[in-house]
Amino acid sequence: MAAINLKGMDVDALLALRADIDKRLGQKRSELEKQLSRLGAESGGAGRNSRTGLGRRSTLKGRKVPPKYRGPGGETWAGRGARPRWLTALIRQGRKLDEFAIDKGPARKGRKARRKKK
To answer: Is residue 5, in this structure, part of any structural domain at all?
Structure first.
């Protein structure tokens, strides 16, 4: 590929070069999109999560849950994910996880059970 001296080009020539580059990039993009669609059709993965291959997501992902544990400084943890540093430090000191459990008391009345989606 020949080297182009951009410093020696005037503004009109630079704008023309830019238009040529945009046109070529658009062509290349459409070629790649066609290839990807062909590959997706061949593998049969035209679904929503075909890129990741994971299938359906968990219905609980991203849903807020009430805290199950409370620390001495008011910190809370729902019991999901990594154990927080404050809890890890207290357990290393010899404390038990059950000491920080939040008592839930009797279940609320009037709460309806949810139906599972099919």
So the answer is: no
Q: What are 113's two structure tokens?
A: 């059970």
Give the model confidence (pLDDT) of 93-107 as tens digits: 999 999 999 987 665
User: Is position 62 within any domain?
Assistant: no
Q: How far is CA 87 from CA 1, 7, 67, 74, 77, in A?
A: 62, 62, 13, 12, 9
> Residue 101 carries which DSSP code?
B
DSSP string, 51-72: TTT--SPPTTTT-----SEE-T
Counted domains in the chain? 2
CB 54 within 8 A of CB 87: no
- Give domain status of residue 53, yes or no: yes
Range of the domain at 93: 69-100
